[in-house]
Amino acid sequence: MFSKACEYGIRSAVYIALQSLDGRRVSVNEIAEEIDSPIAFTAKILQLLSRNDIIHSVKGPTGGFEIARKDMDTVKLNMIVKAIDGDKIYVGCGLGLKECNAQKPCPLHDKFVDIRTDLSKMLKSTNLYELATGLEVGLTYLKR
């Protein structure tokens, strides 16, 4: 459903939020290892997240990536998806056709509209704090 970059972006942001709750900044290498992603690919994703004010990058010997506690409540998953994948998940065809709309629908069009609506609601209502705290207490996991 999401691109690989978007999956890694969400996992990165959640991991950074979890570490930020403990007052830690994390390096690209640590994030890449924790989410099982190539370092160079992770760096590009983190750059996108930083440019879109989802995470903060601090340079220098004690630098790394972090998210302020107050921002964890306001950063929703839809912001991460938009920063990395744009809005194609909300407007694209379920079968990947170039032209698919109410006037010229694909066989999945009507069913996929409902799925997209539900997905949009979930992404807009889920914040980093709730995901990070789920990890913190061991209710959820980031690794396979």
UniProtKB/TrEMBL annotation:
It comes from the Bacteria. GO terms for cellular component: cytosol. Gene3D superfamilies: Winged helix-like DNA-binding domain superfamily/Winged helix DNA-binding domain (1.10.10.10). GO terms for molecular function: DNA-binding transcription factor activity. Pfam families: Rrf2 (PF02082). This is Transcriptional regulator, BadM/Rrf2 family. It comes from Allomuricauda ruestringensis (strain DSM 13258 / CIP 107369 / LMG 19739 / B1) (Muricauda ruestringensis).
